[in-house]
Structures are given as C-alpha cells and as structure tokens.
Design brief:
This protein is of the alpha/beta class. It contains ten helices and eleven strands. The chain is globular, with a radius of gyration of 17 Å. The two termini are 35 Å apart. The chain binds S-adenosylmethionine (SAM).
C-alpha cells in the first residue's frame, strides 16, 4: 500500500506486448524509484536482514530458513536488490529480476559500491527468461508478491524452482489491506473493515497518482493457489514489530501493528 500524490505517470508505447498492469507498474515504479534510493542504501549497508516496513529482525521471521549457501536463488521484483545482496553474502548464486529500469539503476550502482556482482535482469516476474527448474530458492519482499498477478507469478515461481525448492515472500497482511482507508487523507489504518474480503485480487488506490496496480489475496486463496501450483505451505508468519520500532509509512501505526499483523510472510516448498 504505497500512495503518493506528487507524480504524473507516463506510458511507453514500446511496452505494448506486456500485460496492462505490468506496463502501469513499470511507469509507476520508474516514477517512485527516487523515493526508494535511501532505503536501498540503508539495507545494502546492513549485514543482518530485517523485514517489512518496521524492520522486523530475521530471527523473528526466518525468511532465509534454508541455508542459502551454494544455492541458486532468484529474487522476483528485486527493486534495489538488497535482499539479493543479503543472499549473495550468504553464499547464494543469486539473480534479481525487476520490471523498473530506474530501480535497477540504483541496484547496479549499489552492486558497484559494495563490490558484489550478480545478474540483474529487466523483466516481468510473471514470465522469467530461465529454463524450468533453474533455482533452489525464490524470494520476493514486496516485489512480485504485491505488484505482479499471483495467478501468473506463483505458477511461474513453481516452474523456476527445482523439486524441494523454497519460495518465501512478504506482502501486506490481509487485515491491513481490509482496514486501510481508500484515501490517505482519511488517515492511517484503523480497527474497521473497509472493503470486502471475498473477491479481492487487483486494486488501484484512488489517490495513487503513480497509477500503480497491486494484488492482494485472502489467505484461503493463497493456500489454494500455492497448492494447485505444486507447493506445500510450510508456514505463514504474521509479522509483529518489536516495541519502539518505527516506520516511514503514514498508512500504518505501530500501536495497530502491535495488535494485528500488518505484514505476512509465506513459506512454501515445491513438491518433490
Ligand atoms: C517495493 S519494491 C520491492 C523490492 C525490494 N524489496 C526493494 O524494496 O527495493 C517493488 C518492486 O517490484 C517491482 N515489480 C513490480 N511488478 C513487477 C513485475 N511484474 N515483475 C518484476 N518486478 C516487478 C517494481 O519495479 C519494484 O522495483
């Protein structure tokens, strides 16, 4: 749930062969990329992973629950690619793919500054140019997990993973999605449900002038989609920020996130 009011989106006609939401999200993320540079720099400089908008420690999440060392890994919607950097430093052979050329400019600069080199591809995480069974690990932190169509990227992740491979992704929690007001001007998340849970899938926020398209699923739908795509669900971690943590995102409040989860991490394993 990312809303800003000071952008004017543009579209590029050369992208006509991409699905509409992918074209819209490329324009949206190229506009927003400058706002994500500082966070990218901070996270690249950090050795210990922290997750989500409050920076929950890895020990509370266990996002990297398979030792990444020696594994082939892909980050789907890598943005500034700090999750890929954390995987590379833990010994993974990692590839990042992202739909925004401008996000990848930041990622490539940070690679140079930190002396890490791994492939960064411009592309759509729903159709990744790698053969079947190329990876042991697929991850997404607010990348494909929020901005790509789950009915396309989850089967694609299953195709890319080897049997026994691990999928880990983080996105907004169902409850946060249901309780955030339509308009940022109406204040942050509160304790009332604002929209139906049944039928949830694609959403555009009325005051997001970047024109971005998000995708949210109810938990039953995630479980069915993962299972029919060839995964077993191993865990659903509902993130609780530590007391005293802070976020730069106005739509969420620590008091709310201490009582209800604002983010969820799914851990699923490709069936052997
Ligand atoms: C909030 S960033 C998350 C990435 C990373 N964790 C970070 O914070 O830099 C969301 C990223 O998802 C990318 N994205 C959106 N739709 C995508 C798609 N269909 N395929 C690949 N990347 C996509 C955007 O370009 C953007 O860089």
């Amino acid at each position: 749930m990312r809303r800003r009011t000071d952008y004017a989106p543009t579209m590029n006609d050369e992208l006509d062969d991409l699905p509409e939401h992918v074209r819209l999200n490329r324009a949206s993320w190229d506009l927003a990329a400058a706002d994500y540079v500082a966070a990218g720099e901070r996270c690249w400089a950090a050795d210990e992973p922290t997750w989500g908008i409050f920076g929950v420690p890895e020990a509370d999440v266990r996002f990297f629950r398979d030792d990444p060392s020696g594994k082939d890994a892909i980050e789907l919607g890598c943005g500034t690619a700090y999750v890929s950097a954390w995987l590379a430093r833990r010994g993974a052979r990692v590839v990042g793919i992202d739909n925004s050329p401008k996000q990848l400019v930041t990622a490539r600069r940070l690679q140079r500054e930190h002396g890490l080199d791994f492939p960064l591809l411009l592309g759509n995480a729903e159709t990744v140019p790698y053969p079947d069974a190329s990876f042991d690990v697929a991850v997404s932190e607010y990348g494909a997990a929020l901005w790509a169509d789950p009915y396309a990227w989850i089967p694609e992740a299953a195709r890319l993973l080897r049997p026994g491979g691990l999928l880990a992704f983080l996105t907004n929690h169902l409850l946060a999605y249901l309780c955030v007001p339509d308009l940022e001007a109406d204040g942050p998340v509160d304790e009332r449900l604002k929209r139906p849970m049944f039928g949830m899938h694609r959403i555009t926020w009325p005051d997001d002038e970047t024109g971005g398209v998000e995708f949210h699923l109810a938990h039953g739908d995630w479980i069915r989609l993962l299972r029919t795509s060839g995964f077993e669900v191993e865990d659903l971690v509902e993130l609780r920020p530590p007391e005293g943590s802070t976020t730069t995102y106005d739509w969420m409040r620590l008091e709310w996130a201490r009582d209800w989860p604002c983010e969820e991490v799914w851990i699923a394993r490709k069936r052997a």
